[in-house]
Amino acid sequence: MSEDATRTAGSGGKDKASGRRWLIAFLPLIVFMGLAGVFLYQLGSGKDASEIPSVLIGSKAPSLDLPPLQGLVENGEPVPALTDAAIDGKLSLVNVWASWCVPCRQEHPILLELARDPRVTLVGINYKDKTPNALRFLGELGNPFAAVGVDPAGQAAIDWGVYGIPETYLVAPDGEILFKQIGPFTPESLETGLLPAIEETLSPAGS
């Protein structure tokens, strides 16, 4: 092989190696841009997490047998643990919350209002929280729950199909899940989602 041919062959090998190095160097950027494109497409579609349907709606609510939040007292009496007995035979709201959850703090005034609605019983699943922090949270903001169960490992949340807290489920007196709110309640979501669901359930046609 001539000297020129040897140089040409060597140059070709260097070009291929350089191309491979370029691809490896920019591969993370290419992957990131692809993922960003998918995210922006979904964002632009107008869908949000609160619109994700729950596979549990229309089915029987998972069984509840959670220990109480130790130290939580209401009117001088310990607040009960969250078991099936707390919601059986009642139209109930099951709210999944934690002291470290910023949106939980934002929706808390709405939960306090819902607690005063005689049509529903509001109970809470305290998710992956520390007892002192949970007690401090409710001590500062008020306790809207008729019963609270602690879920330190998140198993109950898995059973209920929780995407991310806060989440709230409307459960019929017979245990059927009727409605699910993903994310914090807002005045708008109450008017367009939960309150119509409660009214429909309690109406003669819905009962």
Q: Beta-strand level of the residues, as a percent range?
A: 15-25%
The CATH superfamily of the largest domain bears the name Glutaredoxin
Q: Per CATH, which architecture of the largest domain? A: 3-Layer(aba) Sandwich
Q: How many whole angstroms does the radius of gyration measure?
A: 26 Å
Tell me the span between the first and last alpha carbons.
Answer: 92 Å
Mean pLDDT: 83
Q: Strand-and-helix sequence, N→C? A: HEEEEEHEHEHEEH
Specify the biggest β-sheet: 5 strands, mixed
Characterize this entry briefly:
The protein has 207 residues and is an alpha/beta fold. It contains five helices and nine strands, in the order αβββββαβαβαββα.
Give a structural overview.
There is one protein chain. With 207 residues, the chain is of the alpha/beta class. The protein has 2 domains: 1-47; 52-202, Glutaredoxin (3-Layer(aba) Sandwich), CATH 3.40.30.10. Helices cover 43% and strands 18% of the residues. The chain is built from 5 helices and 9 strands. The protein has helices at 3-44, 102-115, 131-141, 155-159, 187-202; strands at residues 65-66, 73-74, 77-78, 82-83, 92-97, 121-127, 147-151, 167-171, 177-182. The strands form 3 sheets. A 5-stranded mixed beta sheet has the order 7-6-5-8-9. Helix 2 (102-115) links the parallel strand 5 (92-97) and strand 6. It is globular and about 50 Å long. Mean pLDDT is 83; it is low at 5-9 and 34-52.
How would the blueprint of this fold be written?
Blueprint: H1 3-44, E1 65-66, E2 73-74, E3 77-78, E4 82-83, E5 92-97, H2 102-115, E6 121-127, H3 131-141, E7 147-151, H4 155-159, E8 167-171, E9 177-182, H5 187-202
Parallel strand pairs: 5-6, 6-7
Antiparallel strand pairs: 1-4, 2-3, 5-8, 8-9
